[in-house]
Structure formats: structure tokens, C-alpha cells
Amino acid sequence: MRFGDQRHAIEEEHVALMQRRGTFRRLGLAGMLASLAVGCGNPPDRADPNEQIFADFTKRVDDYVALRNRLADSVGPLDPTSSQNEIASRAAKLASAITAARPSAKPGDLLTPEAASIIATLIKQEYDRRPARILEARGDAQEELPDFVPQVNQLYPTGYPLATFPASLLPLLPRLPKELEYRIVSTYLILRDIEANVTVDIMPNAVPQEKLP
Asked: Mean pLDDT score of the chain, rounded to an integer?
């Protein structure tokens, strides 16, 4: 073999060797990444079931708000300069429209059993974290809690107080639009339409009796 041909053959062999090394490196990296993916547990694209449940709750809330806002438009705009009697009259008309539009509304329409199970766990965990001194003082707070059995589509009784909702719970629960609020009634968690004063949904056994705020 001539020197030039021998040199050319050596160069080709060197190029082939470098290509094989590159292939091995890529295969090794791919294997490493695959091993890491397996070792990390759930695939990154697997959805959190709790997030799916809360997303469903949010959609149900949004559907309710869309309905009540259409009814509010039919009742007429809220004029903040109106008298208290006029504001109360509009709220009563809105409440009547809401209950008429939801004649078959029942517990769990918004706070589904799946959402209620998660929320009950979050509430229990929050109360379990409370210092003993707060739990010892709960007797005074219990006197302020409304003690009646709420019903869906019920007007919140004006003879009972609107007890302050525990501030430590709010960050744990799904955020509500401005038209709705959470309230605790006895051991129930309720969703209340603020302006219409209508109980939109209820969740029984939300707060254990011995851990009332």
C-alpha cells in the first residue's frame, strides 16, 4: 500500500472511531436520563388529582356566578347611593331569581364529595396545628357561631350572626370570586352569595365539633 493510501485509511479509521465514541456517549446520556426519570417517581406530565378536583370545583363556582350575574343584570344595576331599603329590595329580588333558577339545587352541586373530602382534611389539619391556648379559648368563639342547620337555597337567617371566617383557613381553600364567601355554621361549611344572602351550597361535618373555632 502506498503511503498516501495508508494515511487515508488511518484517517478514515480515526473518523469512524470518533463517531462510535459519540454514539456511545449519546447512548450513555440517554440511559442516564431514563434512569433519572424512573428514579424521580411520577412522570412530570401526570396531573395532580387534587388539582383536577379543585379545577372542577372552580368551574362549578364559575358556572354559578355566570348564572347569578345574568340574573343580577335582569334585576337591574346596583346603585351604591340607593337607600338601605332599596338595596335590601334589590337583594331580595336577586335572591328570589337565584332560587327560582336553581329549583333542584342540592348539597354537593358545587362542593362535590371529592372536593369536600379534601377540604375537610385541610380544615382538620389546620385546627390540629393550632396552639392549645387558642383551643382553650374556643368557648367564647362558639357563642358567636350561628347554630342552625343550613339548607341549599335558604336565605341566611338574619337572626344569626355572620361569624368571622378563620383567616388561617382562607389560604388553604380554593379562592372564591367576589360574589361568594365561605362561612361556618355549626359544623357546616357553606358557600354564601354575599349580595343575595343565599346559601349556595353546604358541606356537612366540615369542622369537628370539638375543634370549632
From this structure: 79
